[in-house]
Structure formats: C-alpha cells, structure tokens
Design goal:
389 residues, mainly alpha, 0% strand, globular
C-alpha cells in the first residue's frame, strides 16, 4: 500500500518534468535534467539507505525517504511558482534521494519471504502495486496543473504529490521490520570484490541495469518527442505514459506462472526479445499508436528483466552480506539509469527520435549476450547438481 503512493512521484517527473523544463530552462537540451537528477538522487540514496537500514531497520530508512520526498514536493511547488529551473532540478534530485531510501521496501519484501522459491512471487506481488502509481502519477500531474497559480502551471501537481506522501507515512505506521533467524544471519562476510566477481552477480546486475537503463532512456525521450516535437496532445501523451507505467507492473499478475513454466532464464530471454520488438516499432513512425505500442512493450520487457535480475541477486550473497551487496547493486543500477536519461535528452534534441532508438540497439544485443552466459551458467550448475545426487 505504501509503495504506489510514493512511486507516483517518478511518473510525475517523467510526464511533466521535461515539458515544464523545456519552458523554464535556459536551453531545451536541459529538459531531461530533472529526471536525470532524480535518478542520480536514487543512486546517491541507496548506499546511505542500506547503511541506515542495517543500523536502524528498514522502517526507519523508509521514513527517511518519505521525509525527503515530502520536502522535495514542497520545494517543487515554490520552484514552479517562481519559475526557477535550478530549484526545480534540486527538488527532483531530492525526490530521487527519497526514492533511493524507499528501495528498502523491495528488500523488506524479500526478507519477508519464508523460502527462496517464494522471492519471485513476493516481488511480483509488490511490483503489481505499481499499477496504481502508473495512473496516480500522471493523473495528479494533469488534475493539479492549474490548482495553484504559477507561470507555466503544474505547481498544484506537486501539492497533490505531497498529499500522497503524507498518506504513505500514515500507512507505514503499521509496518514492522522483518526479522531474520540468527542462524541464517551469522556467517563471515566476504569482501565485496570477491562477491562481484561471481558470474551470477554479474548476470543479475547486467540484466537489471541494462533493462532499467534502456527503459529510462526511451521513456524519458517519449513525452518530449510526442508533445514538444510531434505536436501530440497532452492527453495523448499522458495516455501513453500511463499505459507504459501500467505495463511495467501488470505482468506481475502472470509472472509467477511464467517463472514456473519458463524459469528465470526464459523470462530473461522474453525480456530481450520484447526490447527488440520495441526498437522495430519505435523506428516505424511517429503516430500516437507507434509510441503507445513501443512504450507498452517497453514496460513489459522491463518487468521481465528487472524481476529476473532482482530474483537472481540473492543467489550471489549470504545473509550477512545482504546490505552492502544490495546497495552496490542499486547504486550501479540507478547510476546507469541516470546516464541513460541524460543521454536521451541530448540525443533527442541534437539528432532526433530515430537516433535515440538506433543507439539502443547495441545494448539490446548485450542483453542477448548476457542471456547466453546465464544459459551456460545455469546448465553447468544443473549438471553439477545432477552429478552430486
């Protein structure tokens, strides 16, 4: 219940961040900077969040993130009322920092799972709650556009966001930190360099990081390309973004069944194939339906790749190592995502939508390469298990 309320912040920045920034920034090429700074904020927040969660518990870390998000929403209101791009960028950064702390909800869900086999199902249920954020975020952005007087609108959007964050704070009062059995937690922690050299860690990290980066890259460019460059209406742009965000989480309804049928290996392959289809559709034209189909499939592909990467990650660490490994994973994950979103704006304004899509192709090829190595690793592990039995 908490996650969709706080997750609504990201669709707000995705949907209107570039549109309003193209009006108040000194140059349109900086239009995606708020989204980039938000993602960088997530990357900057995950490490201290993990340290704080280790010392004070997941609940304390989440409340820290919610406090950052609430402060950011209030700063964004003031920034848009005085049309300050710099202050709006700072608010976006602070929203990201709050998001970094709120990643702890994901790991709390993992730790609440009784068996390792339950982790994909648990994550699928948690990710499904993001469907509500898909509609909440863009909806409050449009509904609140003229709620408060501001030169270019949207100040009221962040007032509604502040109200959602307050709601999340109330819900979190009922949360209890998951407890782990002492026998499981005890164990000598390995050096981080030893952990990250493991094939399964690299496979998990690359799957989630590339999937996240490509999703952010294409998603960031879409509202600006649709509304600012191609002249599609704000309602049409909102519809595409809402569909995309819903598609990021709706597959979680069938993900447990897909994992049972295809295993994580098959889910990874499906994600890579779907990303290939996204590129083909996105290169086919600039009509609303081209954007709609591309962004819908992009959301589904992201779901499969992120679920695969996150489910594989616990196989790389012991319970005593979980905080530092989770922090390292998320730092790299959101660092790549931030670079991708910044690159999207620069390429879009200098070379156009087609080049935005073409540049994604080599990274999709890397995804297939990662799948090949995972297939080899999984096959080798199965043979070892068979021989031992």
């Amino acid at each position: 219940m908490t996650q969709p309320l706080i997750m609504a912040a990201a669709p707000v920045i995705v949907f209107i961040g570039g549109i309003v920034s193209s009006q108040i920034a000194s140059t349109p090429t900086l239009a995606t900077l708020p989204l980039t700074l938000m993602i960088l904020g997530v990357a900057a927040g995950v490490v201290p969040a993990a340290m704080l969660a280790k010392k004070k518990g997941r609940k304390f870390a989440v409340y820290t993130g919610l406090s950052c998000a609430l402060t950011a929403a209030l700063i964004a209101i003031f920034a848009l009322k005085i049309a300050s791009f710099e202050l709006f960028v700072f608010a976006s950064l602070l929203i990201g920092v709050g998001g970094g702390f709120n990643q702890q909800l994901r790991f709390a869900a993992i730790e609440s799972s009784v068996n390792e086999e339950d982790i994909p199902k648990t994550l699928a249920i948690l990710m499904l709650s993001g469907v509500f954020a898909a509609f909440l975020g863009p909806e409050i952005a449009v509904v609140g556009k003229d709620l408060l007087v501001s030169p270019y609108g949207y100040a009221g959007s962040f007032l509604l966001l502040a109200m959602l964050v307050c709601g999340a704070m109330l819900v979190m009062l009922f949360f209890k930190n998951p407890t782990m059995k002492t026998a499981i937690v005890v164990g000598e922690a390995r050096d981080l360099t030893e952990i990250i050299k493991q094939p399964i860690f690299l496979i998990a990290l690359c799957t989630a990081a590339i999937g996240f980066a490509l999703m952010s890259y294409l998603m960031t460019a879409t509202p600006i390309s649709m509304h600012h460059m191609q002249g599609h209406s704000l309602q049409e742009t909102k519809w595409v973004i809402q569909t995309h965000t819903a598609a990021m989480y709706l597959p979680s309804l069938v993900a447990p069944w897909l994992i049972k049928q295809l295993k994580l290996k098959g889910l990874m392959l499906m994600g890579a194939l779907i990303y290939s289809a996204v590129a083909v559709i996105a290169l086919s034209g600039h009509e609303v339906m081209h954007y709609w189909w591309a962004l819908m499939l992009l959301g589904i592909g992201w779901n499969f790749l992120f679920l695969t990467g996150t489910s594989l990650l616990p196989q790389s660490y012991r319970a005593s190592e979980r905080h530092k490994v989770q922090a390292t994973n998320d730092f790299v994950l959101f660092g790549f995502q931030a670079m991708a979103s910044l690159l999207a704006g620069w390429i879009l304004f200098t070379a156009g939508w087609h080049w935005v899509v073409l540049i994604s192709l080599p990274f999709i090829l890397v995804l297939f390469t990662v799948f090949y190595f995972y297939h080899r690793h999984d096959t080798k592990r199965s043979l070892v298990a068979t021989n031992n039995n």
